[in-house]
Specification:
mainly alpha, about 170 residues
Length: about 170
């Protein structure tokens, strides 16, 4: 059990670090947009690649932060109905929805991984100023989806454990 707690602690630190990284990247994007606006309107010389970089950054921020957000229970829920249920029923509903989410995300991770692997070594690029290879945009997405998959599995376990403990009371 101590090993499991240690692994969970390391996992939580990884998710927290990734969220910190996402926040830092977001701050960079805001700074880039501000500089671009100033250069565009004050000097009539915008940064040609800033919009494209900000689009990629948005994908990265979501990818890095979605597992942490789930861990913090920050996703949208229908609290009106859920709070009317007993703790045991809440555990069951959370467990079932987490298992369904895990299954859906597992399919998405499988497909996204297959697509990403197919782009490795390919010359497929995303049109734009930077002509960035598609694989570099897909890799953070696959990593983020995998982290979400693991966190959904953890949430399923915690929810069914809550349901089981409530059953014994």
């Amino acid at each position: 059990m101590r090993l499991l707690n240690k692994v969970a602690s390391i996992w939580n630190r990884i998710l927290g670090s990734l969220m910190f990284l996402a926040c830092a990247i977001f701050a960079f994007a805001m700074l880039l947009v501000c500089i671009d606006v100033i250069l565009r309107y004050a000097f009539n010389s915008p940064i040609s690649w800033s919009l494209e970089i900000c689009e990629y950054i948005l994908v990265g921020i979501v990818s890095l932060g979605m597992a942490w957000l789930l861990k913090e229970e920050g996703h949208v829920k229908i609290d009106l109905v859920l709070h009317q249920l007993s703790p045991r029923a809440q555990g069951l509903v959370d467990g079932v929805t987490s298992v369904l989410g895990t299954a859906a995300v597992a399919v998405i991770v499988g497909y996204a991984t297959k697509e990403t692997v197919s782009y490795i070594g390919s010359s497929a690029t995303i049109t734009g100023v930077l002509h960035m290879q598609k694989v570099y945009l897909l890799i953070p997405l696959v990593i983020g989806l995998f982290l979400l998959l693991v966190e959904l599995g953890r949430r399923s376990y915690r929810s069914f454990r809550k349901w089981k403990v409530s059953e014994e009371d």
